[in-house]
Every structure is written in C-alpha cells, then in structure tokens.
Amino acid sequence: MKKWKSGYGLLACVTILLIVYALADNYIIDPGAESFLSHKTGLKRELNLPVWLNVMYVHVAFACVAMAAGLLNFSNRIFAKSRKFHRMNGYVYVASVLLVVLTSGYMAPHATGGKITSMGFNALNLIWPFITVMALVQIKKRRITRHRNWMIRSYAFCFTNLSIHLLTALFHQGFGFVYADSYTIGVYGSIALLLIIPEIVIRASGQLKES
Ligand code: HEM
After folding, report:
1. CA of 202 to the centre of ligand 1 (A)
2. Where are the transmembrane segments (predicted)?
C-alpha cells in the first residue's frame, strides 16, 4: 500500500511537470512550433500551416486534459471520496483520448520522417482508442481489476510525446542518426515501450497487493 502511494506520488510529479511543460512550450515559448517544424524537409504533402497549428493546439490541450483526468482517476483517495466524480472524470478521459486521436489523424500524413512515420502514428490511432474502449467495456461488465489493468495500459499512451522525444534525442544526439530517422525510431520504439511497460507495472502492482 505504501509502495503504491509512493508510486502514485512519483507519477503525479512527472505528469504535472509534463502538463506544465507541454502548455508552456506549445502556447508560450514556441507557439509557431518552429523548432519542431524545422525538421520537416521534403514533405510529400504540403502543410497548411495555420490549420496544422490550430489542430496541434487542440491536440495538446486534450492531451493535457487526458493526462490530468487519468491521473486523478488513479487516486485511491479521490475514488473513495466520490465514485460519481470517478465516473464523470472517466468519460472526460475517454472523450479526450478520442479528440487526441482525431487531431492526430489530421497531423499523421504530414509526420516528420514521411510515410513510415505516418504509418506508425496511424497504428497508434487504432491501438490507443482500442485499449481505452476495452477499459470502458470491462467496467461496464463490473470487472474492476481488468478495468484497472486496461486503464494502466491506456494511460501509458499519455506519455507518447515524451517517449518519442526522449528516443529521438537518444538516437539523434546520442548515436548521431539523422533527425528524421531518429524520429521514426522514436515513434516505433515508443509503441513497443508503451505496450511493454504497463505489463510490468500491472505485474508489479499485483505482487504488491498479494504481499
Ligand atoms: C497524450 C500526450 C501527448 C502530447 C502531450 C502530445 C503532444 C504533441 C505535440 C506538442 C506535438 C507537436 C510536435 C512536437 O513538439 O512533438 C504533437 C504532434 C503529434 N502527435 Fe501528439 N501528443 C500526445 C499524444 C499523442 C498520441 C497518443 C498520438 C497518436 C495517437 C499523437 C499523434 C501526434 C501526431 C501524428 C503528431 C504530428 C507529428 C509530426 O508532425 O511529425 N500524439 N503531439
């Protein structure tokens, strides 16, 4: 129980920092996404910049709502206080995931790294809603543990952008790969990591409960 609490505290710190960083970076520090867009060279599809930027703002906004809503719903204390809040907030999470995916659907064809990266994002556009809907289906069937496990799997994808950028930096700055290739590796590497890490968390939390 103590370990679960400190795990939640760590998750809360990382998530809050990430939300503040995403909002500051995309709306205040670099609202034109100039740094990110500077890596887009030789795009097959022309980018309509004003539309792309507005879609990106909506994307980031709902990504932050999903991160915050998910975090609140993993809190045992909040759950114990109000099941109604947990339910309503859960629907906010699901709606936000769908809006992140919808906006991603617009941006994916223009992805840095070209068609291969676009395919990776399109895979994510199917995987994330599928996992999230599975979490919803499980709780409709009153299967609480399965619902919790599917939510752990779904919530991992809130860290997609962080994971892509960390892997991109590792391959680009660390191993000297071209930026676009590093980004493509970042996307596929993130899909793999974000599917594997939750399984480890689920196993570890199961053992914590038993011990
Ligand atoms: C939930 C946390 C997420 C946050 C905070 C986030 C944030 C961002 C930001 C800031 C960008 C602009 C480029 C950059 O600076 O990276 C972006 C681009 C993008 N995001 Fe997300 N994102 C998240 C999750 C996702 C997920 C789960 C998907 C796919 C289902 C996705 C698909 C995309 C796509 C396709 C682009 C355009 C990439 C490109 O042009 O190369 N994002 N995201």
Report:
1. 25
2. 56-79, 91-108, 120-139, 151-171, 183-202
